[in-house]
TrEMBL record:
Protein name, entry field: Uncharacterized protein
Basic and acidic residues bias (residue ranges): 73-89
Native species: Methylorubrum thiocyanatum
Chain segments carrying region Disordered: 73-101
């Protein structure tokens, strides 16, 4: 019988303001960490916390919250943006009549 590898526990950085190299490893993993610089620049436009110049890193709890919001998970699972296909549809799935002006 082959051994089944247990899933790795969620990784956390070593401090509240990890440097970009550590953050890249935690968020993307060691194999994809090189992509963090470009990805972070793009995600900053959507609200990823910037590097705090005084602390020398991004505030980890805010980064984690941003990623949870970005992927609609955790406490943010119900805060999905309403897309065009959902306009005028009640939560039950029934169409809602719009008033004409």
């Amino acid at each position: 019988m082959g051994s089944v590898r247990a899933s790795a526990p969620a990784q956390e950085p070593s401090c509240l303001y990890p440097d970009e190299a550590e953050l890249a490893r935690v968020v993307l993993g060691p194999k994809r960490a090189k992509a963090w610089g470009g990805l972070a620049a793009v995600l900053e436009r959507s609200g990823l916390p910037k590097v705090d110049p005084m602390m020398g890193g991004r505030y980890w709890p805010a980064v984690r919250e941003f990623l949870d919001r970005y992927h609609h998970t955790g406490d943010h699972a119900s805060s999905r943006r309403q897309g065009r296909s959902e306009e005028g549809v009640h939560a039950s799935g029934a169409r809602v009549a719009r008033a004409r002006s």
